[in-house]
Amino acid sequence: MAALFLLYVVAEVAAVWAVSSVVGVLPTLGLLLAGAMLGSWLARREGARAARAFMTAARAGRSPEAEVTDGMLVGFGGLLILVPGFLSDIAGLLLLLPPSRGVLRRAWLRRAEKRMPSAGRVIVVDSEVVPDDRAHPVIEGR
To answer: 34, 70, 80, 102: which is deepest, by most CB within 10 A?
Structure first.
């Protein structure tokens, strides 16, 4: 894990160095600041949107797993925006933009479904718990 973190730090420094050598130091700092401001605005907007979608799903009585996952991804994207550097800003912005977040959310939910086969869905029939053999709506419906 420490080696992975070190590799990330070296990649961030290399990215800042490369941009700085092309456009200069002050424009590089301006780009980093602009990315942080854009990202924080986008995180606030998408976080509020995810919260509203969660409340709508909860009021409708349906499972809000997609909305919860969206909220988690928005939070992680906002955290990445706070970390200084171009690579973290790009990753954070990708998590904050709805199209790329939707792709990642579907992949995340598919992976989670595959990793937890024993925690399959169940239904109650005449006070007896039986496995739910129907197709999962998250995988097929989205």
So the answer is: 70
User: What are residue 133's phi and psi, to 5 degrees?
Assistant: -90, 0
Q: How many CB atoms lie within 10 A of CB 16?
A: 19
* The pair of three-digit structure tokens given for residue 15, joined into one six-digit string: 């990215």
Judged on CB neighbours under 10 Å (0-12, 13-18, 19+), 21 is exposed
pLDDT confidence of residue 142: 47
Cβ partners under 8 Å of residue 46, min gap 6 = 74, 77, 96, 98, 101
Name the CA dihedral angle for 100, 102, 106, 107, rounded to a multiple of 10 degrees: 10
Report whether 81 contacts 35 (CB < 8 A).
Answer: yes
Sign of the CA dihedral with 83 first, then 86, 91, and 94 last = positive
Give per-residue pLDDT as tens, 46-74.
999 999 999 999 898 888 888 888 899 99
Residues 6+ apart with CB under 8 A from 70: 50, 53, 101, 105
Mean pLDDT of 122-136: 60
